[in-house]
Amino acid sequence: MSESFEHRLRVRYGETDQMGVVHHPNYLLYFEEARTAYMAHMGLPYGELERSGVGLAVRKLDLRYRGSAVFEDELCIRVTVGRIGAASVEFRYEVVRLADSALLATGSTELACIDLSREDRKPRLLPEELRALLDPAG
């Protein structure tokens, strides 16, 4: 597994529910925001990847809530690369509140590599450049 990448964000008011707690689907947005920041940090932003005809489509996700975040909490989303398959990659996440180091959520997404140049979006092998970035140990 790769070293972790950390992405920080502050909970916005619109992400909370009537009880003042982050509404549960926003954690999936936090995962995506952290994953795209990680990809850019590694030198292959999603936009560049997609312009090259390669897409990464979520085909499986897992999310476990362990605590609640509220408006204005500063969060750290830790991203690591898990299993890398021939045509897929798994990302793992931890959401931590920085003020008290409380673990608020854990999860993972499995992304299938797809060919964006095809109308049917058929799966394709992960490009070697992407594989090398995600798994430097090779």
Give an account of the 3D structure:
This protein has a five-stranded antiparallel sheet. The protein has helices at residues 26-41, 46-51, 128-134; strands at residues 5-10, 54-65, 74-84, 88-97, 102-115. The longest helix has 16 residues, at 26-41. The chain has one domain (5-134): Roll (Thiol Ester Dehydrase, Chain A). The chain contains three helices and five strands, in the order E-H-H-E-E-E-E-H. The mean pLDDT is 94. Strand 4 (88-97) and strand 5 (102-115) form a beta hairpin. Helices cover 21% and strands 38% of the residues. It is α+β, with helices and mostly antiparallel strands and 138 residues long.
The first-level CATH class name: Alpha Beta
- Weakly predicted, low-confidence segments: none
Specify the CATH homologous superfamily: Hotdog Thioesterase
Task: Give the overall pLDDT as a whole number.
Answer: 94
- Distance, first to last CA: 11 Å
The whole-angstrom Rg is 16 Å
Strand order of the largest sheet: 1-3-4-5-2
Q: What proportion of the residues form beta strands (DSSP E)?
A: 35-45%
The CATH architecture is Roll
Number of domains: 1
CATH topology: Thiol Ester Dehydrase, Chain A
Helix-strand pattern, N to C?
EHHEEEEH
**Could you say which overall geometry the principal axes of the C-alpha atoms support?**
elongated
**Amount of helix:** 10-25%
